[in-house]
TrEMBL record:
<dbReference type="InterPro" id="IPR013783">
    <property type="entry name" value="Ig-like_fold"/>
</dbReference>
<keyword id="KW-0472">Membrane</keyword>
<protein>
    <submittedName>
        <fullName>Uncharacterized protein</fullName>
    </submittedName>
</protein>
<keyword id="KW-0812">Transmembrane</keyword>
<feature type="transmembrane region" description="Helical">
    <location>
        <begin position="523"/>
        <end position="540"/>
    </location>
</feature>
<feature type="transmembrane region" description="Helical">
    <location>
        <begin position="546"/>
        <end position="562"/>
    </location>
</feature>
<feature type="transmembrane region" description="Helical">
    <location>
        <begin position="499"/>
        <end position="516"/>
    </location>
</feature>
<keyword id="KW-1133">Transmembrane helix</keyword>
Length: 565
């Protein structure tokens, strides 16, 4: 029986010696993929077998006692033996090739026993948690929204992450399957426990989870301070003579300078938000928001080069409340992006700004939890401009879903989910998935019962369409939200897929072509081509689809070629 091979629970065991153990020892070889071996046996008489482990690496031999590393004394026992060889697990991210040898020998006489081997598959070492380090206290930036980027050792292709406010994870705040070794979450103040578990290529448990804890604390108070410089917006030349009105609900201070800067000390202002109006002779005024302590540079436009533009906010989503919404106006420059104006809308929804003529500015709407890119704007004269916000999903009435509210904001770069879940509004964590419609692959997924948060999905491709599905089991009933979106079309809120967009577009082109082709095929072909171009520009058709549609219509028009030209 020497050299026989046995298969036990998926493990290949090579046995040398005699099957009846009538020689001094029996050897078993096993691979690095298994770590625990239990040997059950029944001794004959008063004789017990000895069990030794040998760890082989290169040519060296290391003899260790079973379960007692560092000694070579044999183990004599009538109990089941659990053998845990040293270094038998596979190293993270590598293929560990070392072998281990288990010797089951006799003591004095042959006991004539039957040996049964049971193998248990080990978990690999858990990934090391990098940030936040265990016990870290993170400074709180906002009472409700604090972005934390969790990171850990990159040792697998997929991970499962869980965040809880309880050390036993009895209530889960967040849970998600993550492809990378980083996880962006938004949390309020408090203490959190988090664990990361790695999975292998076949989506099987790869390691015991690594567990860590951190806290988000209230930010320590800082002394108030503000310093303001001013420059000519067009030339970048420093202004030495200018004035500043700095104010909030409790403070109003006016200062002027002839030296190029104005300071407000801790004896004049405290930490927090202020509005600064910066103005100078020959220049149009600027308004900026200052978060004390802060230093800013204001860019003023010459009076003869600027026009007064009144921006009117029209919000159909009830997300951007006038007095809580800022209009941020920036412009590109060689040294980077310049902040030109930053101020809240007034009670009438107006925000008046002086802008240089024929300059390309970028407009952004901001609240404490939302940001919406409006796009570019070029001023040519005094103007009144309406900013319409309509591509953010309406939040359901709080009385309908037990107080649970959510919104889905779509921009050219990302999809942003924001939610608020008062205590008792959710029976279980909500589920939020985004799927690539072309491949069916789920590209983003989170599940949470946190009282509030923000989740951002950045489009990996500008060409693909994505399917959004949001489900929540609320105390007011089940909530199901489904829609399609893609980055080159900010608004696809009709839950219409690319397929039906193309079908509708083909129908429009065919009807249009036949309508005009009935009287003249040339005119029909010309007008149909113009319409196909318009549908492409509007985003209903891609280039290949527009060409295909046009060819089909031309074929139909050819049938009518005998009509009057």
């Amino acid at each position: 029986m020497s050299g026989s091979t046995f298969y036990v629970d998926g493990l290949t065991v090579y046995k040398s010696g005699n099957a009846n153990l009538d020689t001094d020892e029996c050897t078993f070889l096993f691979t690095e993929d298994y770590i625990n071996i239990t040997i059950s046996y029944t001794p004959d008489g008063f004789y017990n077998p000895s069990v030794l482990a040998v760890f082989l690496e290169d040519i060296s031999h290391y003899i260790d006692d079973v379960g007692k590393l560092g000694t070579v004394t044999a183990v004599y026992t009538t109990d089941d033996i659990t053998f845990t060889p040293t270094s038998s697990f596979r190293a993270k991210g590598s293929s560990y090739q070392a072998k281990n040898v288990l010797y089951v020998g006799t003591s004095g006489f042959t006991p004539g026993v039957q040996y049964n081997i049971t193998v248990s598959i080990p978990f690999n070492q858990p990934p090391n948690l990098y940030y936040p380090e265990n016990g870290t206290v993170i400074e709180s930036n906002y009472p409700d929204y604090n972005k934390v980027i969790l990171s850990w050792e990159d040792c697998a292709n997929q991970y499962y992450g869980v965040i809880s406010k309880y050390s036993d994870f009895s209530t889960i705040w967040y849970e998600s399957t993550i492809q990378d070794a980083e996880w962006d979450v938004t949390l309020d103040s408090g203490t959190y426990y988090w664990k990361i578990q790695a999975y292998d290529e076949v989506n099987e448990q790869y390691s015991e989870p690594s567990v860590g804890t951190f806290s988000i604390g209230n930010a320590p108070s800082k002394p108030g301070y503000a310093k303001i410089y001013a420059k000519n917006e067009s030339t970048g030349v420093n202004l030495t003579n200018f004035s500043v009105d700095l104010y909030n609900d409790t403070t109003y201070i006016t200062k002027s300078t002839t030296t190029g800067s104005i300071e407000f000390s801790s004896s004049e202002i405290v930490e927090g938000e202020y509005i600064a109006k910066i103005y100078a002779n020959g220049y149009s005024p600027r308004w900026r928001i200052i978060e004390s302590p802060e230093t800013i540079t204001a860019y003023l436009a010459a009076e003869d080069m600027a026009s007064l533009v009144s921006f009117n906010l029209i919000d159909y989503t009830n997300q951007f409340k006038y007095r809580e919404t800022k209009l941020l106006i920036t412009r590109p420059a060689d040294a980077g992006t310049l902040t030109i104006s930053e101020n809240y809308f007034d009670a009438a929804g107006l925000n008046k700004v002086y802008l240089e003529n024929n300059v390309n500015y970028d407009l952004t709407l901001q609240t404490t939890s939302l940001e919406r890119s409006v796009g570019p704007y070029v001023a040519t004269q005094t103007d009144f401009v309406s900013l319409v916000v309509g591509d953010i999903e309406l939040i359901p009435p709080s009385t309908v879903y037990g107080g649970f509210n959510y919104s889905i904001q779509k921009t050219n770069e990302s999809v942003i989910l924001t939610w608020t879940a008062p205590a008792g509004s959710l029976y279980s964590p909500f589920i939020y998935n985004i799927t690539d419609t072309s491949s069916g692959e789920m590209v983003y997924s989170i599940s949470s019962i946190a009282p509030q948060g923000i989740a951002t999905f950045n489009y990996p491709s500008t060409e693909k369409q994505y399917y959004i599905q949001f489900w929540a089991n609320t105390s007011g009933g089940e909530l199901l939200h489904q829609e399609y979106c893609r980055s080159d079309q900010q608004l696809i809120d009709l839950q219409v897929s690319d397929y039906w967009y193309n079908v509708v577009s083909f129908f429009i082109l065919a009807t249009f072509g036949l309508l005009f082709g009935y009287r003249s095929s040339k005119i029909g072909a010309f007008l149909t081509s113009i319409l196909a171009l318009g549908l492409y520009v509007a985003g209903f058709l891609r280039v290949s689809e527009a060409i295909a549609a046009f060819v089909v219509v031309l074929g139909l028009l050819a049938i009518l070629g005998g009509r009057k030209q």
